[in-house]
Predict the structure.
Amino acid sequence: MPAGHARGLARRAAAMLAAMTASPAPTPTEITLHAASRVLEIAFDDGRVFKLPFEFLRVYSPSAEVRGHGPGQETLQLGKRDVTITLLEPVGHYAVQPLFSDGHSSGIYSWQYLHELGLHQDELWAEYLARLAQVGGSRDPGDPRNSAIMAPEMPARGGH
């Protein structure tokens, strides 16, 4: 990923973290998985309702595998268009942990993080599509362009 994009993502992550710690976390009043449309619908106690596509949640997983351990270590997720959520587990009273159909299960989505994703969904999705276009990647699983993009030192994994 080019340094400019990595810095931009790092700034966005820092801004989201600052916003998350500055105000009390909204609490969900209802969570519904819509399997057919591959959307997680979440209503919050502030009156907002977000419909977050499974693919969007997968490519913005808060896991270290996706976000890395610091700025510039993000891993662009390729070929996730058809991903589904096969299980959604509660984590205490503050988060959920989805199991995605590609095997990824290490992301813990706090209520605050889901709320922030919902608030910034359009902008984040546009950024993701722009990054894909920049590297010539595809949302489609099995697209040969995706395997050509994977770094040689980073072999394809099952998405955990």
The helical segments are 3-22, 54-59, 64-67, 111-119, 121-135, 144-149. Confidence is low (pLDDT under 50) at residues 151-160.
